[in-house]
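Section 5.1 Outputs to date
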Amino acid sequence: MLEEADMKKEIYDKKYEELTKVNQELAVLQRKAENYTSAAEIAQYHQRFIELFELINCSIEEKKTIYSQTSNLEGIKKLISNYQ
């Protein structure tokens, strides 16, 4: 009876060790899974990227317009100074 209890204890201890290893592996995998961005986060990043891209494009267009107007005004100024 004592030998049978010892054998069961050994089996229990081995299974417990296996279970702890599996739990450790599971914890590592859970941490890795949490590090990945979700689809909702990716959609938000994508939307924000598009908004920033459009904002930059608007800013570039405004600067192009300002430079063009400045260039035109400089040209007009030179023409006027040549005729005087």
